[in-house]
Amino acid sequence: MMKGDVLGVSPDEDSASNSSISNEDFSYPEYPLKKHPNSHFDMDPENQNYLLEPSQAKKKSETEYLPGTTSFGMSVFNLSNAIVGSGILALSYAMANTGIALFMILLVFVAIFSLYSIHLLLKTANEGGSLLYEQLGLKAFGLPGKIAASGSVTLQNIGAMSSYLYIVKYELPLVIKALMDITDNGQWYLNGDYLVLMVSLFLILPLSMLRNLGYLGYTSGFSLLCMVFFLIVVIYKKFQIPCPLDIKAMEITLNATLSQLNQHNNTVAHTHNETSDEMCKPKYFVFNSQTVYAIPILTFSFVCHPSVLPIYQELKGRSRRRMMNVSNISFFAMFIMYLLAALFGYLTFFSNVEPELLHTYSKVSGAGIIFVVVRLAVLLAVTLTVPIVIFPIRSSITELFFSGKDFAWWRHCLITLLILAFTNVLVIFVPTIRDIFGFIGASAAAMLVFILPSAFYIKLVKKESMKSVQKIGAILFLVSGIIVMVGSMTLIIIDWVHNATSKGH
Question: Where is the Amino acid transporter transmembrane domain (predicted)?
Fold first, then answer.
């Protein structure tokens, strides 16, 4: 499905014998490394390793070229880190509301479409002469294009931050209860809202204020290991947890945090009328009011496009074909990981699965100390990842509104505070993590996966006519992305309005 010959680059595209620049490789060993003092790229300090534009083919000797230093295997690891995230915790919920067969179909299509958009993005970067998402937007559509790219990246990262803090909000109270052996839920320090604010203020904020977060980059690898550990435990527990579930004989009311989670239970209230046999029987096609969240959740889970160009820039022996092979392997590995996590999580809880899978295990009697360890590992990973996610948001805002200005600590701190404060407000007042996955997946993720790569490709790749197969495919992909975004957003808003009306009655 995801082999290189399916979504890789065709030989005629890469050879480009009639083109002034080969799309296969940007290595020019015969030319000395030399900086062109009048290059317009010099105005942007972040864009030091740009690619050649077609009009610059005769001026290769004036171009600075820094070869990549990252190996193929490490590039696969880095891209896998960029793909995997908190979205894996919502996949079982998506499967419960689509059925196994429909979920697998959607998963295959979203993975293939994401790979195709990476193909368009890489080809556009080659033709457009830039390895920065925002710069491609600027080249394609001017300031509106730059704002669209910057806004989509920012919104996607805010969604990722929110999902990480939601995990803190859901899981930290349960960890504290387990470690302190508390049965009473009335203490203030078991309120998820308070805990999110405290973690944000005393841990995330100081780390986010640093100018250089290089040492925190190691947490991306730790986060991937935590998710692999989580997957192993989910598979193992599937064969230990009986069905129907042995639900704890207690009220789960961790103040505002868990009472908000109970709102989700209303959406699957019909399951209480099912017999035990029906509850423990897997379904292959499901359509209900929550099915609309499946595509946004899957799209959110596969978004890695802002990281593709930096990884491409650092790839040793850089070529578009080589980067597509990196993408194919990374996506195939994450496809298998996502499928296993969704399948075994669903087969453990069936229709009782919650939007955040890890939290569902808190309702199982005798889940074991292993889930306390899993929660601690995931909590540590996501908490240390939040400052890394803040960094590109802050950089994008600074580039958009304060481009060309010298660094100022007051601006650096103010932007950081505003980002963190806004994200905390979202986490405290938005009812469930499902809404964050749904909204961000339908808006920013759809822009990054479907709309922007195809729009940039159509605008910047000049050597192909609008009647060519490649351009027609990009146009169809663009139209599909618009339909997915508008359709998903409309259905999600309708679901929100329906739930608000139901509560009013």
Answer: 69-493
